[in-house]
Write a structure and sequence with these properties.
The chain has helices at 10-13, 19-31, 44-58, 62-65, 109-113, 130-155, 162-166, 237-242, 305-316; strands at 6-8, 34-38, 79-81, 87-88, 91-92, 96-101, 171-180, 193-196, 202-207, 213-217, 220-223, 231-235, 252-254, 261-271. With 330 residues, the protein is an alpha+beta fold. The protein has a single domain (21-324), classed as B-lactam Antibiotic, Isopenicillin N Synthase, Chain (Jelly Rolls, Sandwich). It has an eight-stranded mixed sheet with strand order 1-2-12-9-14-7-6-3. The longest helix is centred in the middle third of the chain and has 26 residues, at 130-155. It starts with 5 loop residues before the first strand and ends in a 14-residue tail after the last helix.
Length: 330
């Protein structure tokens, strides 16, 4: 079976001719909904340091990690959850993790209004290097995600800044660090993460050398093995929606690992208040979309991206779903 395409974007991201990279990304988006980005320009030392700090945090006792438990963040939806604490399709995942987002201070209008998924991050006191490393990587990945979307736009025959002008002028930024303990550590979990799709536009994923990420293709499930100094990029539900299904938000899953695994997914999503309209020339294709893993359709809803996202994440942590009710007038 064919593998996930590896695309060197170095020249295009450095201001060179983007034609080849944009065409390769377009082909990957149509065939797989997944590709691997190399030549991204992010210092590998940053991820090495973050990997080290994350392992330090997850090795600590649960009582210490619970000092930044998600319940403490309320509607901001930040902080740590324990192994088995996140659900996919109603079933516990075999992982623990920390949720982060853009650092919205108390004076940010949406944080002040109590808008879901906006507000300050929760960082542990120790290791104290975790916070600055996460915030620096958030900045670098936000820039990279916007640049990859520019190549996506070119591949679709659009102006290079189409997504930035229409959907990501004020993007919703989410970031996770996930720790998958060895198989058996979460007895109720069949998978590290069951089959699912991502919600927004683009996901950029760094993973350690353990592997376990699998992608569903028409030919069957294939692996997305670790490639040194790279990011796995996959499409979210909103890119499927805006292209009328020409691009697919591809289901993927994670096997339970033989030893501890770390992954670092970053999500570049539309602006909170954005209404997701079709890309010019990519409305209704007339083709029936294939059945989705959750039995739902990215086309059968109307509203803002914030409303779509709130509904989705409430299913992931149902015990905290009440915190996602947006205040009136916000």
């Amino acid at each position: 079976m064919p593998g996930i395409p590896v695309i060197d974007c170095g020249g295009a991201l450095a201001g060179g001719d983007a034609t080849e990279a944009a065409a390769a990304i377009d082909a990957a988006c149509r065939e797989h909904g997944f590709f691997v980005v190399t030549g991204h320009g992010i210092d590998p030392g940053l991820l090495t340091a973050l990997d080290r700090a994350a392992r330090d945090f997850f090795a600590r006792p649960a009582a210490e990690k619970a000092a930044i438990a998600m319940a403490r963040a309320g509607a901001a939806w930040r902080g740590w959850f324990p192994p088995g604490g996140e659900l996919t399709g109603g079933v516990p995942d075999g992982k623990e993790g920390i949720y982060f987002g853009r650092e919205d201070g108390p004076d940010h209008p949406r944080a002040r209004a109590g808008t879901p998924l906006h507000g300050p991050n929760l960082f542990p006191d120790e290791p104290d290097e975790l916070a600055p490393l996460v915030l620096e990587l958030l900045d670098r990945l936000t820039e990279l995600g916007q640049e990859v979307l520019e190549l996506v736009a070119l591949g679709l025959g659009l102006e290079r800044d189409w997504f930035r002008r229409h959907l990501t002028a004020d993007p919703t930024i989410l970031f996770r660090i996930f720790h998958y303990p060895p198989a058996g550590a979460v007895p109720e979990a069949t998978w590290g993460v069951q089959e699912h799709t991502d919600y927004g536009l683009l996901t950029l994923l760094a993973q350690d050398d353990v592997g376990g990420l699998e992608v569903r293709t028409p030919s069957g499930w294939i692996e997305a093995p670790p490639v040194p100094d790279s990011f796995v990029c996959n499409l979210g539900d909103m890119l499927e929606r805006v292209t009328g299904g020409v691009y697919r938000s591809t289901p993927h899953r994670v096997r339970r690992p033989p030893r501890g695994r770390l992954s670092f997914p970053f999500f570049l999503d539309p602006s909170w208040d954005a209404r997701i309209v079709p890309v010019p020339g990519f409305g209704d294709t007339g083709a029936a979309p294939p059945p989705r893993w959750d039995g739902r359709s990215v086309f059968d809803w109307d509203g803002t991206y914030g409303e779509y996202l709130s509904d989705k994440v409430a299913r992931v942590f149902p015990d905290q779903a009440a915190s996602l009710q947006e205040p009136k007038g916000s």
